[in-house]
Design goal:
This protein has about 240 residues and is an alpha+beta fold. It is built from twelve helices and four strands; from the N terminus they run ααααββαββααααααα.
């Protein structure tokens, strides 16, 4: 998957910051919609950095620190200053697209002033914790859900979350794997979205990870799954 194409950046490589922000503000790609779906700076940054890895671009950045209204990024040693500035402009624009009031974005640092209210989380009325977990992940499947963050979102300790899921015959990792596979299956069936975009939007680390995890659950590759009639789909044990 090409990084610029995934973002809908149909501008010249030497485009001005205003041109880049304008292109991302109007972009209709599923990747941009996925990255900006939740107006949380740390979540947006995490998705952006994963997109860099997913697209295997050479001038990648890493999150060094995160404060209440500031994050600091560090680039790979091989990245030039121009590459760093270009990446910061893109991340700046994505945050603006999500509704954040970004103040500065230079020297590896992005500051913001106001953050829109996060959407309320409705995990349903089921008595099964695994059902609540499914609905939580479905709100933002591209997020790098960690056990600690998930437990906090559900108002539980990590130990309680693990214990309750175990009592229901599951685990956090298995629930996450099956939920992402289910969402990927729906996208494969209902849209013409590319396999690479589906893999990213469903939270996989890279295309190889998507292929491996999807096959582990369904017994088929994503490409083969897409071409088969629904009646022939079998889930691997």
């Amino acid at each position: 998957m090409d990084f610029r194409a995934a973002l809908g950046l149909n501008v010249a490589s030497d485009a001005t910051p205003d041109d880049i922000r304008g292109a991302l503000a109007l972009s209709k790609t599923i990747v941009v919609r996925t990255i900006t779906s939740i107006p949380d700076p740390s979540v947006i940054c995490g998705k952006f950095l994963r997109l860099q890895r997913y697209c295997a671009i050479t001038s990648r950045m890493h999150l060094e620190g995160l404060d209440e209204n500031k994050l600091h990024l560090k680039a790979d040693p091989s990245a030039g200053r121009q590459d760093i500035e270009a990446q910061l402009i893109v991340l700046h624009a994505l945050m603006e697209r999500a509704g954040l009031e970004v103040r500065t974005s230079r020297e590896g640092e992005i500051r913001w002033q106001d953050v829109p209210a996060l959407p309320a989380i409705d995990t349903g009325e089921s008595e099964r914790l695994s059902d609540h977990l499914h609905r939580l992940i479905a709100i933002d499947p591209a997020r790098a859900w960690r056990l600690e963050d998930t437990a906090a979102a559900l108002g539980l300790s990590t130990r309680s979350l693990q214990r309750y899921l175990l009592a229901e015959g599951g685990s956090f990792s298995a629930t996450l794997r099956h939920m992402r596979t289910d969402l990927a299956s729906q996208m494969l069936r209902r849209s013409a979205t590319s396999l690479a975009e589906i893999g990213f939007c469903c939270g996989y680390a890279d295309q190889a990870h998507f292929q491996r995890e999807f096959r582990k659950v369904t017994g088929q590759t994503p490409r083969h799954f897409r071409t088969q009639p629904k009646a022939t789909i079998k889930t691997a044990p």
